[in-house]
User: Fold this.
Amino acid sequence: MKIALIDPSHYTTNYGLRCISSYLLSNHFETKLFFLSPDLTDGMNWGDWGYPQEIYEELARLITDCDIIAFSVFSSYYHSAAALSDFLKREFPEKLVIWGGIHATVSPDTSILHCDIVCLGEGEETMLEIAKAVKNKEPLRDIMGIWIKTEEGVVIKNDVRPLEQNLDKYPYQDYDINHMFIIKDAHIRPGTEKIMKDLLTMGSTLQHYFGLKTSENYQYLTMTSRGCPNHCAYCCNNHYHKIYKGKGTFLRTRSIEHIIGELEEITRHNNFINFISFFDDDFTARPLEFIKQFCEQYKSSINLPFKCNLNANTISREKISLLSEAGLISIEIGLQSGSENVQKNCYKRPFNAKLFKKNTQMLAEFPHIVKYYDIILDNPYESELDIAKTITFLAEMPKPYNISSFSLTFFPGTELYARALNDSLIDLKSDPYLKFKRNNILYPEKSYSKILIYLAGRTPPVLKHGYLILAHPWLIRLLSQGRINTIFQKILKTRGFL
Ligand code: B12
Ligand code: SF4
Assistant:
């Protein structure tokens, strides 16, 4: 029996979907993986959400031999997934259509409108049970972790299943090109070695981003753990903590042997890979002893430069020293805001300004590690004073560092989404906020304060005091006002800043 697994997002690194595929394969089911990223069309612009007619037709031809059609959905790609899913359901009314992934988990009610079954939360076991039940023609309605539409149109809502504690149980993610299809030059094409290389290439622009030695970089992205101890009000973990309450320990880690085994296997088959990205929510959330043993084995078996995402509350000089010795060359740390008010009352992040600053001083002792600090912009709940505090905070951090900034997006299922809905900042029906914030990086406009944030890591320490005067809340308020902001934008444009 064959299952089509479809990702309509801009990325081809969907760890969750690739894990589901390998779990099904290891249980003797066949899969076909489709990565339908419009970005891989060499610059073709396909408009807002849709795909050209040929793509729909090619997809329909390629999945004729599949018994189940399954989508992995991110909220930002909800509309693309819905268009494809509705089309395929019309073409193949007899085939079961399933939605899983983060959007299906946080917003099952908008997902069930476009499929027969929604899978909530981690999906390996659920997908396997569904596949087995379809194969054996058994009823599906009691499977844990699903919402299912009955023939009468009633939706049965089952509880999520307990969290799998032994992540080593799952095979490595599926990167086999032999059953993989991607959009290339405006057509869905079968995977080839060349396409695989293209998928993993980072392009020359990312050389500087990660501080790499060569412009020929091929990145392999993986996760060594699942979960995060925090529940920040804008993050998926906020929702996960709610649905998984009483379902087992949330932060789980794979064993070092399992992680190293995966990296050995992928680099053996693709020896051009020369950079590893660990995308765990917080790589250093694990004890020092784990980091120590991991670094020893990584250095002796893999020995490639790598990046990871860290939390300022869990790092220490010892951990960074070990990781740096093992090949750590780039880190990303969430600051999000320098205002304690925003951290506490809006983002609900555990934030200790003193500790954060102390740790940035410690990180400065590792100059070869490229540092990125995440900042959330365009937050309607922030005042000019809060923004000025972020700028001041950034000014006081040791340089150099880079800023990775994103507009605040109210993702469904989060506490901040509920607040924004209550305050009429978003509209449930048309959901324009989400729609126009595709990719989460739409900057409605460049503003005075954003330019100061952007320049924070680049301002030489001698100019710090001048920079701080420019960050006075009064000046931010003045230069952000309607007419003055327009004049300011015009000046920036004529100077080539915009
Ligand atoms: C790694 C990562 C990335 C990577 C890779 C993403 C990719 N698509 O390959 C990069 C850096 C590229 C990235 C980019 C972005 N990301 Co990101 N990313 C993550 C991160 C940290 C981990 C994802 C992961 O692998 N989790 C672990 C696996 C095991 O979980 P999973 O993916 O959810 O998969 C499980 C289940 O969902 C389910 N499942 C998944 N698919 C399917 C399909 C079926 C059929 C079934 C049955 C089940 C199922 O089973 C899987 C295995 O158990 C998450 C945060 C998080 N902790 O999850 C954010 C997260 C997914 N990212 C997010 C966002 C917003 C983005 C960006 C839009 C940001 C940007 N500014 O560009 C982009 C766009 C992503 C895209 N797909 O296009 C949001 C998404 C929120 C939402 N509601 O959609 C998250 C949740 C973070 C957050 N803000 O809360 N991201
Ligand atoms: S620390 Fe990061 S990953 Fe964890 S809940 Fe907060 S934003 Fe999400």
About this structure: DSSP finds 21 helices and 17 strands in the chain. Residues 9-11, 13-17, 19-20, 70, 72, 74-76, 98, 100-103, 105-106, 119, 122-124, 126-127, 223, 226, 235-236, 279, 281, 406, 411, 439-441 surround cobalamin (ligand 1) (CB under 6 Å). The two ends are 54 Å apart (CA to CA).
